[in-house]
Amino acid sequence: MEYKTINNKVNSFVKEINKLGNVQAKTNFTCCQTCGHYEMKVENIKNYIFYHQQTADSMKASNTCYFAHSFECDNIKKMVLDIAHKYGSSWDGSDNKAIEIKL
Hints:
Helix content: 40-55%
Strand content: 15-25%
Number of strands: 4
Largest sheet: 4 strands, mixed
Number of domains: 1
Number of helices: 4
Distance between the termini: 11 Å
Strand order of the largest sheet: 1-2-3-4
Shape: globular
Radius of gyration: 13 Å
């Protein structure tokens, strides 16, 4: 599918992740990655991806979005990895690498 803007592509990706039901995807969530992970832990969310305000600020100029993430188990991570690849991400499933979505 062709996307006209990075926002359109990211929104489609987020909707597909949220349809899994066992992963929460949030957009423009908190000010930074540290606060985002903290808030997810406070909310007791085990499986999640998000991008934060700093990413949102640069997303339009770079046509790239970086999602922080955490997964409780490998089978959930694999489902997210498969969807990320569908959207052209080169993410390899590494815990220490962001999920990158480009226009």
